[in-house]
Amino acid sequence: MAADRHRTSISAWRPSIPGIAEVFHAHFTDHAYPAHTHDTWDLMILDEGSVDFALDRRLHGATGTTSVLLLPPGVPHDGRTVTASGFRKRNLYLDDSVLPQRWAGRAVNAPVLDDGLLRHRIHQLHATLAHAGDGFEAESRLSFIRERLHFHLGSLQPRTPGHEANRLAAELRELLDSRIHTGISLHEAAAILHAHPTHLIRCFKQTYGLPPHTYLTGRRIDQARRLLLDGHRPAEVATTVGFHDQAHLNRHFTRHVGTTPGRFTRVGG
Predict the structure, then answer these.
(1) How far apart are CA 169 and CA 171, in angstroms?
(2) Is residue 198 within 8 Å of residue 148, measured between CB atoms?
(3) Which of 150, 205, 240, 266 reaches 20 to 30 Å from 57, CA-CA?
């Protein structure tokens, strides 16, 4: 049993993304949560194993990597491991700007969602949150998760881009181009352009063929290439073009160009 306890691991942090109160990753082998409540929504995916839990005194269970668990605020629940190997999970604790607390009763009836698309979007958001500096992308991914949860709890259908798509896309591109160095949040862009965040992203992707966070990263990489060829150091270039730090630049630059910024000029990029 001591070896099992040694395998328990936990990491938690608060990202600078509006709507996310906490990110929590854990591997438990023999842990049992006592009955408790949260003042936030608990959105959880399993990466391995099974979990049993009671929500509002009703028993539920989840197994494998296809389900999504949504536990509402203010409702008592517990949780426990099912097998000796335990389970691995990733949680997002979301405030009521993502989901209104008045929908808590709806979630009590069906806390386990069999939704592969939602599960994939949550996985993508966790992957994005692991890297500092990708706030615009994280906001975008959270916006689509919010939309999917609203579909489940409120039966709200996403809006399809119409005749306004090209105009909104062009206005967003102009806004992104003006904020390459300083950056802009998705919330701010949506407020400036008087558009819902997910609708704004869909309009941009329909018009230009890629999401706005990908466009912004590409523009920064283009500027970084020019500055590197002018002889500037990678650490200086990173902050100049709007990346969080040199590691942030290295990750995106390598993905786009196939080599690191430090090697780029040496190999005749």
Answers:
(1) 5
(2) no
(3) 150
C-alpha–C-alpha distance, residues 192 and 53, integer Å? 43
Q: Positive or negative, the Cα torsion across 217, 222, 228, 231?
A: negative
DSSP SS3 for 129: helix
Rounded mean pLDDT, 25-45: 93
CB 239 within 8 A of CB 252: no
User: pLDDT by residue (tens digit) across 182-236?
Assistant: 999 999 999 999 999 999 999 999 999 999 999 999 999 999 999 999 999 999 9
Residue 31 has pLDDT above 80, yes or no: yes
Task: Name, in order, each residue with C-beta under 8 angstroms of 234's C-beta and a sequence gap of 6 or more.
Answer: 228, 246, 249, 250, 260, 261, 262
Q: What would the pLDDT profile of 39-51 be if each residue is shown by its tens digit?
A: 999 999 999 999 9
d(CA 52, CA 128): 28
What's the start-to-end Cα distance of the chain, in Å? 55
Q: From the CB of residue 208, how many other CB atoms can be counted at a distance below 10 Å?
A: 16
Query: Mean pLDDT score of the chain, rounded to an integer?
Result: 92
Task: Judge whether 61 and 102 are in contact, CB under 8 Å.
Answer: no
* DSSP label at residue 156: P
